TrEMBL record, chain A:
Keywords: Acyltransferase, Cytoplasm, Iron, Metal-binding, Transferase, tRNA processing. Belongs to the KAE1 / TsaD family. Fe cation binds at H113, H117, D310. It catalyses: L-threonylcarbamoyladenylate + adenosine(37) in tRNA = N(6)-L-threonylcarbamoyladenosine(37) in tRNA + AMP + H(+). Required for the formation of a threonylcarbamoyl group on adenosine at position 37 (t(6)A37) in tRNAs that read codons beginning with adenine. Is involved in the transfer of the threonylcarbamoyl moiety of threonylcarbamoyl-AMP (TC-AMP) to the N6 group of A37, together with TsaE and TsaB. TsaD likely plays a direct catalytic role in this reaction. This is tRNA N6-adenosine threonylcarbamoyltransferase. It comes from Nocardioides guangzhouensis.
TrEMBL record, chain B:
The keyword Transferase applies. CDD domains: ASKHA_NBD_TsaB. Keywords: Transferase. It comes from the Bacteria. The keyword Metal-binding does not apply. NCBIfam families: T6A_YeaZ. One of its GO terms (molecular function) is transferase activity. GO terms for cellular component: cytosol. This is tRNA (Adenosine(37)-N6)-threonylcarbamoyltransferase complex dimerization subunit type 1 TsaB. GO terms for biological process: tRNA threonylcarbamoyladenosine modification.
Length: 347, 212
């Protein structure tokens, strides 16, 4: 039998993503983003995102089919992010996916957004090592997960106790007068700065914190430290060295992320680390993780930046794996669950 | 066959019509949860009528006004079904559907007003002549700002009986009447675009607060 042709829909935040895959082969990854509409608000406005999803849905599905060179009739199954994410935004994608499933008479899989971030790497680097340690870092999440079979469940090892890593990037970018979203702008500014210019704090790395929060993250103290430092400079009437602050901040975030991921992998005896989510597009994080892991004999897999940010291909990739492994589809009354737990892969 | 669906009110409504003959007409048992209830209801009307998805020749959808989240569920469902089945999608102002039913069932015989729940102590409303032709609106306002001696159709009349003492006719839009409106041309058919009538609540952020 041919590998399953799966269409995946992602609307958990501000990207309307429609991806089409056949097995592990990516055929189309169409994304319409409403990020420009949110920029002046400094963050995603849920109602603005939901309105944009409705307008973008049909054109994005059409674009994905055109790119993939397939007709909707050829699709074997529909996958859609059912959570976690913004409730109203998720709902638009889930409703569209159900309409596709109904109209085609094909099964629907409501899938976990985080598990999809893991599964997407199959499109780039082939079958996932089992087990692997997944570190998911974005504007909405920062988690360390042990993944034995991504279609069955993942075990959360740690997560942020306050801000997500991507959120810290956005907030620090604003402090430095850089545009939203902050990640790519900080990354760019940091290339010409010194990463040791300021020694910013590494959250939850003291011996006491490691007892209770060994694999957890905290970025809110770091963000405050950057704000204090910038304000002190401004009060003294001195210019703020944007590139140096960006590089030092980025170094602190990446240092903590990589340290904890490697600690978790070695503790659990896992030899493969997979990094996903929007922050995985950060060039310093990719370089640092690869370099330090190599010293420990640990392999690091990071999908290319376009597949790290939210997209439909990751949802389709997980859907294809669910079909290939014969997992039970979701029912037509599938809810959108804004706080779907990471342990629920298929709703 | 025409599939009609409306998600502008707290109750999801789905109907199937063969010509202008409504062969199945359902409403959700629960209120809200539009996203969970709509697709199973569509499957059920097809089943009850012994029809299949390939028998559908058009989709009619209530374009609101109504609470945004539920409204979008209906519109994205209608548009996507239209795409996948290659059939046209017709939008109708949901207030016009209430008006058409009120006129056809003789609940009104003069000019009248339709008012539905817009939450936040406001109503979505429009005015109609005795034949059911819309003469103003749709708009969203506080009940007290809308003066009328005419009868009032729709849930708004029941929510604000002090302002609208002369409630009459249907309370929430029915999908069966939405199908008849399209089949018989009882109201204007428009693109399946949401009638939000309100801008998104979005505030530009304050400048960063000082932390020390
Ligand atoms: Zn994500």
């Amino acid at each position: 039998m041919n590998e399953p042709l799966v269409l995946g829909i992602e609307t958990s935040c501000d990207e309307t993503g429609v991806g089409i895959v056949r097995g592990h082969t990516l055929l189309a990854d169409a994304v319409a983003s409403s990020v420009d509409e949110h920029a002046r608000f400094g963050g995603v406005v849920p109602e603005v995102a939901s309105r944009a999803h409705l307008e973008a849905m049909v054109p994005t599905i059409e674009r994905a089919c055109e790119t993939a060179g397939v007709r909707l009739d050829d699709v074997d199954a529909i996958a859609v992010t059912s959570g976690p994410g913004l409730a109203g935004a998720l709902l638009v994608g889930v409703a569209a996916a159900k309409a596709l499933a109904l109209g085609l008479g094909k099964p629907i899989y409501g899938v976990n957004h985080l598990a999809a971030h893991v599964a997407v790497d199959q499109l780039e680097h082939g079958p996932l090592p089992e087990p692997c340690l997944a570190m998911l870092v974005s504007g909405g999440h920062s988690s360390l997960l042990e993944v034995d079979d991504v279609t069955v469940g993942v075990e959360p090892l740690g997560a942020t106790i306050d801000d997500a890593a991507g959120e810290a990037f956005d907030k620090v970018a604003r402090l430095l007068g850089l545009p939203f979203p902050g990640g790519p702008h900080i990354d760019r500014a940091a290339t010409s700065g010194s990463s040791v210019y300021v020694d910013f704090p590494r959250g939850l790395t003291s011996r006491k914190d490691l007892e209770r929060h060994r694999f957890d993250f905290s970025f809110s103290g770091l963000k405050t430290a950057v704000a204090r430092w910038v304000e002190a400079r401004e009060r003294a009437g001195e210019p703020v060295p944007v590139a140096d602050v960006a590089a030092s901040f980025q170094e602190a975030v990446c240092d903590v992320l990589v340290r904890k991921a490697l600690d978790a992998a070695t503790t659990r005896g896992i030899e493969d680390i997979l990094i996903g989510g929007g922050v995985a597009a950060n060039s310093r994080l990719r370089a640092m993780a690869t370099e330090r892991a190599a010293d420990l004999g640990i392999r690091v897999r990071v999908p290319r930046p376009g597949l790290c940010t939210d997209n439909g291909a990751m949802v389709a990739a997980l859907g294809a794996e669910l079909v290939a492994r014969g997992r039970t589809p979701s029912a037509l009354d599938l809810p959108a669950d804004s706080s779907q737990p990471i342990t629920t892969v298929v709703a | 066959m025409l599939l009609a669906l409306d998600t502008s009110s707290p109750q999801v409504a789905v109907a199937l019509a063969d010509g202008d003959d409504v062969v199945a007409d359902l409403r959700s048992e629960q209120t809200m949860k539009h996203g969970e209830q709509l697709a199973p209801l569509i499957a059920r009307v097809l089943d009850e009528a012994g029809a299949s998805r390939t028998d559908l020749t058009a989709v009619a959808v209530g374009a609101g006004p109504g609470p945004f989240t539920g409204l979008r569920v209906g519109l994205v469902t209608a548009r996507t079904l239209g795409l996948v089945l290659g059939i046209p999608v017709h939008g109708v102002c949901s207030l016009d559907v209430l008006a058409a039913e009120a006129v056809a069932t003789d609940a009104v015989s003069t000019a009248f007003l339709v008012a539905t729940d817009a939450r936040r102590k406001e109503v979505y409303w429009a005015t109609y002549d005795a034949t059911g032709r819309r003469t103003s609106g749709p708009a969203v306002d506080r009940p007290g700002e809308i003066e009328t001696e005419h009868p009032v159709v729709g849930e708004g009349a029941h929510l604000y009986p002090m302002t609208f003492p002369s409630a009459t006719g249907p309370v929430r839009p029915s999908a069966g009447w939405l199908a008849r409106v399209v089949a018989r041309g009882l109201a204007e058919v428009v693109a399946p675009e949401p009638l939000y009538l309100r801008r998104p609540d979005a505030m530009a952020p304050h400048p960063p607060k000082a932390v020390s």
